[in-house]
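RECORD TYPE: inverse folding
INPUT: structure tokens
STRUCTURE:
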């Protein structure tokens, strides 16, 4: 009993009335109660079990066995203890008490719980994500092979377990595994069987620091590449459609010989104005126009930057030898232009498109008459 008293295991002896008659240092360390606190108290009171005193009383009638119980220490923390017991018999062979020897299994239970949790997480990954999860030992032999994507390539879970990856795949296809076996994690994208494959290679080290295995995740990129290609094609179509819409919403019309008209409708922002400026200036040069009408009747509002662009556009038209005219300015647009402090004295502005056309066509006729005369 002296040996048990110094044992790191918890050694507790109780009598027939369940009163504690022995309590060693191991019990103090594991359960937090000193010998003075424990001696003489009922073990059912100090260390209650789920059914109260029932479990401890049953030990008086059972020769041996193991019970795992969770106890509250004196400091309030929980501790899980695996108890084995041996009955104490008197001279006549009748039960006189029981000796319980306890081992702290708190860390063991927590490790088991974490292991089970990790297994559930792994199961959730391989069952729900389109990936293949695998593991190889230090010799490159598959020890795990599973994943939802296996069905797409005609394979079954565990199909490659026990086979060497170096025997199955070509040398250039095992570069990632070889790198990980040297202790370097790797992420790469490669072609296997004509398919784009994304891989993660994660080295796993033993307690001694050596690489004992490699865990990998393989993702078939074929579907994502196809979806990406379709998305790019759709975006290109949308861009072309937007270009057509922009062209339709800002048509450059030759309404008379030497007279261009550009009716603008809807929202006019800086990007659209810059595009209009480029198109209109090219049209002026291409047609040799003498007049360019910029009609804003269909424009409710512009920001200050856009208003400045419109005025710059008229000035650029003048530099090309034509006259730029703005018609149909709404009150809100006029307020924006005024707020910029822009002097419109040198720019012809008319109330509406009709007045603008009359001005331009009249000027064109006068020029033609003068040239004829």
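DESIGNED SEQUENCE:
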């Amino acid at each position: 009993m002296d040996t048990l008293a110094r044992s790191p295991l918890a050694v507790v002896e109780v009598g027939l009335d369940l009163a504690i008659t022995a309590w060693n240092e191991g019990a103090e360390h594991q359960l937090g109660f000193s010998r003075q606190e424990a001696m003489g108290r009922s073990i059912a009171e100090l260390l209650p079990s789920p059914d109260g005193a029932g479990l401890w009383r049953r030990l008086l009638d059972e020769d041996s066995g193991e019970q795992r119980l969770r106890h509250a220490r004196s400091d309030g923390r929980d501790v899980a203890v695996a108890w084995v017991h041996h009955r104490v018999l008197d001279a006549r062979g009748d039960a006189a008490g029981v000796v319980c020897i306890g081992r702290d299994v708190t860390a063991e239970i927590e490790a088991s719980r974490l292991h089970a949790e990790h297994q559930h997480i792994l199961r959730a990954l391989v069952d729900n994500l389109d990936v293949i999860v695998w593991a190889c030992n230090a010799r490159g032999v598959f020890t795990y092979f599973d994943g939802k994507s296996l069905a797409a390539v005609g394979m079954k879970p565990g199909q490659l377990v026990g086979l060497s990856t170096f025997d199955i795949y070509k040398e250039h296809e095992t570069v990632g595994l070889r790198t990980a076996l040297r202790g370097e994690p790797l992420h790469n994208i490669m072609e296997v069987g004509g398919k784009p494959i994304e891989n993660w290679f994660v080295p796993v080290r033993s307690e001694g620091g050596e690489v004992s295995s490699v865990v990998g995740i393989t993702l078939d990129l074929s579907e994502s590449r196809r979806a990406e290609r379709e998305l790019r094609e759709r975006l290109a179509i949308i861009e072309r459609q937007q270009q057509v819409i922009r062209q339709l919403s800002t048509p450059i019309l030759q309404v008379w010989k030497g007279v261009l008209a550009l009716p603008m409708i809807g929202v006019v922002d800086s990007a659209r104005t810059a595009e209009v400026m480029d198109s209109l200036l090219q049209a002026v040069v291409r047609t040799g126009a003498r007049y360019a009408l910029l009609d804003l009747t269909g424009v409710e509002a512009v920001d200050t930057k856009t208003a400045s662009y419109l005025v710059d556009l008229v000035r650029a038209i003048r530099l090309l030898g034509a006259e730029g005219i703005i018609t149909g300015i709404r009150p809100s647009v006029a307020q924006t232009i005024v707020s910029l402090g822009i002097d419109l004295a040198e720019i012809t502005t008319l109330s509406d498109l009709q007045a603008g056309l009359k001005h331009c066509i009249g000027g064109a006729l006068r020029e033609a008459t003068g040239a004829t005369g």
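NOTES: Residues 117 and 232 are 41 Å apart (CA to CA).
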